[in-house]
Amino acid sequence: MFGRALKNDMKAVWHLWWIIAASVGGLSVISSFVLRFLIANADKTDGNTLLSFLWGAALLFFMVSVIAIFASTIGTVILVLMRFYKNFFTDEGYLTFTLPISRAKLFLAKIVNAVIWEALHVALLAVCVLVACLLAPVPERGSLINPVIYTELYELLRVIFDGITFEAFMWIALYVTEIVIMIFVSSLISICLLHFCITVGSIIAKKAKVIAGIGIYYGINLVFSTAISIIGTMFMLGLMGGFIHYFTGIASADGGLATVAVILFMVIAVLATVAVALYLITLDLIRKRLNLN
Amino acid sequence: MKRFKRIVAIFTLTLLLISALSVCASAEDGYAKWFLSGDMQTLTLDGEKEYHLVYGYYDVYLYHFTRYVYENDDTSIGTIGSASKDAEIVWIEKSYESTYYIYATEKGQEYIEALSESDTQRFRLCNFERGSTDILVEGLIDALDGYAGGEFVPTMEIEVRELASYPLHEVIAVDDTDTLGRTHGAIYEIDGKLCYVGYDGLSNNYFDADGNFSYRDGTVTLSILDESLVSAVVQSFDSYEERNIKYEYEDNVISFENFAASEPSLVAFWIFYSLIAFVAPTPLIVVGIVLANKRRGGAKYWYVLSGAAALWLVLGVTLALMLTLL
Fold it and tell me: If pLDDT is split at 50, 70 and 90, which confidence band does B5 have?
C-alpha cells in the first residue's frame, strides 16, 4: 500500500511538473544560444548601434532566464506541498484517511515524494547546465557545437588526479560522499520543516491555513536565524580556537584526515537527528491533533 | 519503568559531571608555566612576567652562547630558550622553521635598543674553532676602535677574497643579558700579524643582504695592531672556552603544562563541545526511548530518533578521544 500511495503522489505532482520541466529545458536551450550570441559579438558592438541594442537586450534576456531557471525549484516545492495539503488537510483528507494504510506510512510517502521530486529537479538543473556548456561556446566554422568546456574540464581533472595515490583518492572519495550525504540530509530538514509548518498552520488556523503555514515557516526561520547568529557565534568563537589548537597538534596526516572525516560524520548525525525529530513531531501532530471538521 | 528512568537519570548526570570536570582541569604544580597568546605577541611566565614579541633590529642576531632550554611536548609550538635562568630576553625556536622568535620584557627591550644603537659595553671574541671568550680585557675594544681611527697607524689593504682564507676572530657586541649580539668588528691573523677592522666604519658595500661581512668582491683596509694591543688581544685569546652549553633543569626536561595558544579558550572549548556533543543528544535519546515505550502503535519510529541521537553521542565521544589522543 505504501508503494501505491507513493505512486499516486508522484502521479499527482507529475501532472503539472512536466510543464515546469519542459519550460525549464526549453528556456535553457534558448538561453544557451543567446549566450553564444553574446560571446561571439562581445567585441563587435562598438560603433554599431543596432548590434549594441540587440546585445543589451540579449544580455537582459539571458539574466532573466538564468534567474527563472533556478527559481523554478520553488515551483516544484509548491506542487509537492499543495499535494500534501490537499491530500491531508482538505475534504480530500476524509478519503485519504479511510485508505487501508496507516497515517505514518501516508506521511512517509509524502516525504519520500518530496525528496524524489527535489532530486529530479536538481537533476533537471544539472542537465540544463550541461546543455549550456555544450551549446554556449562559439563553435568552429562548419560545426554546430564546441565541446571546449568538456575538454578543458577533462584536462583539469586529469592534471589533478595524475599521480594521485590510491590512499589520497580514497580520502577524497570519502569526503565527497560525506558532503553529498550532508547536502541530502540538509534538504531533508528543509522538506520536513515545510511539512511541519503546513501541518501546524492547518491545525491552528481555521481559515487561510496555507497562509498560516507560510507565516509559521517564516517565523520559525526568523527565530532560528536569530538564535543561530547569537548562539552560533558564541559557540564558534569558543570552539574554533580549541579545534585549531588540537588540530595543529595532531602528529600524523592520516590522523588529521580521519579527524576531519569524523567531524563530517558527526555533522551528518546532528542534521539527521534534527530531520528525524521534525518528521516525528509532524507525524505525531497528524496522528493525534488533526481534526478535519 | 521506574528502574529504567533511574538508570537514564544516572547516565545523564554522569555525562553532565564529565563535562563539568573539563572546567576543573588544572596543571601539575612545580613546573614553569608558560602561556603564549593566540596572536603570538605575548609570552607570560607563571602568569607574572610578561614578554612581548620583538620586531625589527635587523643587524641584531641571536648569540646564545649559553642556553637554558624549556622543552615542550607540543612540537607545533617549539622550545623556549634563554641565556640565563631569569632572563629578560627569551626566544622560541620552532621545530620546523629556521626563524627564531625573540620576546623581551620592558627591561629586555631597553637592552636590545642599546645593542642596536651600539651603546653596549659588553663584548666577546668569537672563533669558530675555539669557542668564545667571556668579557674581553677591559677597554680593549675602545682601544682597538681608537687605534683603527688613528693618523699614523700602519694599515694594509687586502682583497676580501684573500681575507676569507685567514683565521678570523669576530668581535661581538652583546646585550646585558648575553642573549643577542651584533658583529662589531673582526681581528684577522695574517702572516703572524694581528689586523683589526671595525665594521661601524665601513659602508654598506662591504656587507651582504643579511648584514654579514661579504667576502665576494672588493678590498678592505685593516689596521695592523702594535705590540701593546697584540698582547692584550692574545690575553683575551687565552680565555677562549667552549660555549653552546645547554642546561636542563633538575636533570630532567621540564615539559610545559598549559603551554597553549590560549588556556582559557581550551576551557571554553571543552564546555561548548560537551554541551554540543554530550549534553544535547542525551535528552533526545531519553525522549525517544520513553515515547517509544509510552505510545501505542508506531513506537518504532521513536527508536529511530534515539538511534540517531545515540550515533551523535558516540561520534562526539570518538572525536573528543581523537582530538586529545592523536
Answer: low
- Entry pTM: 0.58
Cα radius of gyration (chain B) = 32
- The span from the CA of A5 to the CA of A88, in Å, is 13
Cβ–Cβ gap B305/A273 under 8 Å: yes
Contact B64, B91 (CB under 8 A): yes
- ipTM value, please give it: 0.82
Q: How far is B312 from chain A (nearest CA, A)?
A: 5
- Over residues B243-278, the pLDDT tens digits come to 555 554 433 333 333 444 444 457 778 888 898 899
Alpha-carbon gap, residue A26 to A131, rounded angstroms: 11
Q: Do B319 and A266 touch (CB under 8 A)?
A: yes
Burial B159-178 (b: 16+ CB within 10 A, else e): eeeebeeeebbbbbbbbbbb
Q: Which residues contact A64 (CB under 8 A, 6 or more apart)?
A: none
Hey, what's the cell of B92? 622560541
Helices and strands (DSSP H and E) totals, chain A: 8, 0
Quote the minimal CA–CA distance from A243 to chain B in Å: 8
Helix (H) / strand (E) element for B9: namely helix B2-21
Distance CA A248, CA A240 (A): 12
Note whether A252 contacts B308, CB cutoff 8 Å: no
**Mind listing the pLDDT tens digit for each residue in A157-189?**
888 877 788 888 899 899 999 999 999 999 999
Q: How many whole angstroms separate alpha carbon B203 and alpha carbon B114?
A: 21
Nearest to B82 by CA among B91, B72, B71, B95: B91
Residue A115 has pLDDT above 90, yes or no: yes
Residue of chain B whose alpha carbon sits nearest to that of A264:
B315
Chain B CB contacts of A283 under 8 Å are 298, 301
Chain A residue closest to B74 (CA)?
Answer: A249
* Dist. CA B319–CA B11, nearest whole Å: 20
Residues 6+ apart with CB under 8 A from A6: A109, A112, A113
- Helix, strand, or coil (residue B125): strand
Helix (H) or strand (E) holding A238: helix A209-248
Residue with cell 555544450: A134
Q: Quick one: which of A82, A113, A95, A108 has its CA closest to A202? A: A82
- Closest residue to A273, CB basis, from B298, B309, B318: B309
What secondary structure does DSSP assign to A84-147, as a single string? HHHHHHSTHHHHHTTSSS-HHHHHHHHHHHHHHHHHHHHHHHHHHHHHHHHHSSPPPTT-S--T
